[in-house]
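FAQ

Q: What does a record look like?
A: Structure on top, sequence underneath. For example:
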């Protein structure tokens, strides 16, 4: 079996992995780098040039897993493409939004290769997407077969990360390979914890997002929700507004569900603002609320919370109104996104607050802000002057990713022959590697070097 890490560095970037097994060639995920532009935003597709793929299997519809799928499909016109049904809905909304973002980037910074694909290309590409049910076994030709089929097969398993997210179980030549995708082993406010296989996995490809973040032993989601609610109340008492940078998919809906609980329990009621893409994805959450596993299945986010919707035009006139929560994407506050533009009105105002609720790359504007000291000069958009950091800032732990402790416990239960560590910053991956190497001396722990073909 051959494996190539198509992600360009050891990082959470344009995630993508090539596998060759049982006479088949396939790619797991095809993301877009959240920070880089142009060629660097794509997975390293040159590493598989000349190899014709049978299948592309997508774990979930976050940008770093699906963001450049139309480019790979253009280069691999014969490959079949598989994902869950919610991922087809969300993926299409997200990619169309991405065309608009890339078109603006072309206008603003002269990126001539942008957009990397067009609206029409997404429409045509998505007709080739085949949606698969959870916990069913499929061949790479898309036929449903019994689990013990002698073909190379795959199965999607709920990963508890965001709507439609999965781990991918591959069976080929008598071997079992399991790719976690992005996973959460804890319940969130909407998403229910992953139900992953507990045995019979020979090769595990595992995400490491939180590998360098220990969890406080006293942490619980319920107590964190209380702390979040209290912090909002305090922020409003100071006469300010609260900006919560969120991913459009997952974190927005989780935050809305938390704010719904505040209203339901009559603790606090206030206007909420979200972005256009977040609103479209929340619509998909609402439409699919009664299908599949989730908490609060009767909660219709948009009907219940009636959020105001801001877009790329209206954000420029949006005021920082006191007593309001602005849950805006992007989560990393990438320049030119709603959360970044809005933050520039918040950062130097002591009465306003920014609450961080999830992962941010340390070099992203959200990461820079989080690590800055009060009154320090910060630059969150290189095209604008630095600002003095005077707003209130607080960090909450509502990550959609598994804690490193739960990833280690999962790997130890499975005790696979080989573990490949992916989807993590170098420090995170190294912590996981060292810990697994000492806890599982009979397993081979591999950090797959980018672009290098490994024989597994
Ligand atoms: Zn994800
Ligand atoms: Zn990811």
């Amino acid at each position: 079996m051959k494996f190539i890490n198509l992600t360009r560095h050891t990082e959470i970037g344009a995630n993508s992995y090539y596998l060759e097994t049982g006479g088949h060639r396939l790619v797991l995920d095809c993301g877009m780098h959240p920070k880089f532009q142009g060629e660097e935003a794509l997975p390293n597709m040159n590493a598989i040039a000349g190899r014709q793929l049978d299948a592309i299997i997508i774990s979930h519809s976050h940008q770093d897993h699906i963001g450049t799928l139309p480019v790979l499909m253009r280069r691999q016109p014969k490959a079949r493409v598989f994902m869950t049904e919610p991922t087809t809905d969300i993926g299409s909304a997200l990619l169309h939004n991405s065309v608009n973002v890339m078109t603006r980037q072309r206008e603003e910074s002269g990126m001539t290769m942008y957009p990397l694909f067009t609206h029409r290309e997404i429409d045509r590409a998505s007709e080739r997407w085949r949606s698969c049910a959870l916990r069913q076994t499929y061949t790479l030709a898309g036929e449903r077969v019994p689990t013990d089929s002698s073909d190379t097969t795959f199965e999607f398993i709920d990963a508890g990360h965001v709507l439609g997210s999965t781990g991918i179980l591959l069976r080929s030549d008598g071997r079992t390979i399991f790719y976690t995708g992005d996973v959460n082993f804890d319940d969130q406010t909407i998403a229910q914890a992953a139900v992953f296989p507990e045995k019979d996995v020979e090769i595990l490809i595992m995400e490491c997002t939180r590998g360098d973040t220990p969890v406080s032993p006293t942490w619980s989601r319920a107590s964190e929700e209380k702390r979040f609610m209290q912090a909002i109340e305090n922020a409003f008492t100071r006469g300010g507004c609260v900006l919560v940078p969120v991913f459009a998919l997952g974190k927005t809906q989780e935050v809305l569900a938390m704010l719904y609980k505040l209203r339901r329990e009559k603790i606090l009621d206030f206007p909420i603002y979200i972005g256009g893409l977040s609103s479209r994805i929340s619509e998909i959450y609402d439409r699919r609320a009664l299908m599949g596993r989730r908490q609060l299945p009767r909660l219709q986010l948009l009907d219940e919370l009636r959020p105001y919707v801001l877009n790329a035009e209206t954000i420029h006139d949006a005021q920082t109104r006191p007593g309001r929560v602005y849950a805006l994407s992007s989560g990393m506050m990438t320049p030119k996104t709603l959360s970044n533009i809005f933050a520039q009105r918040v950062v130097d105002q002591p009465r306003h607050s920014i609450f961080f609720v999830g992962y941010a790359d340390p070099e992203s504007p959200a990461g820079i802000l989080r690590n800055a000291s009060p009154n320090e000069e910060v630059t969150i958009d290189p095209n604008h002057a630095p600002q003095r950091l005077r707003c209130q800032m607080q960090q909450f732990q509502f990550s959609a990713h598994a804690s490193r402790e739960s990833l280690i416990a999962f790997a130890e239960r499975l005790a696979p022959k080989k573990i490949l560590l992916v989807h993590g910053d170098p420090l995170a991956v190294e912590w996981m590697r060292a810990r697994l190497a000492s806890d599982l001396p009979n397993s081979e722990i591999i950090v797959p070097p980018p672009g290098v073909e490994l024989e597994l």
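Q: Is there anything notable about this one?
A: Residues 60, 62, 161, 182 surround zinc ion (ligand 1) (CB under 6 Å).
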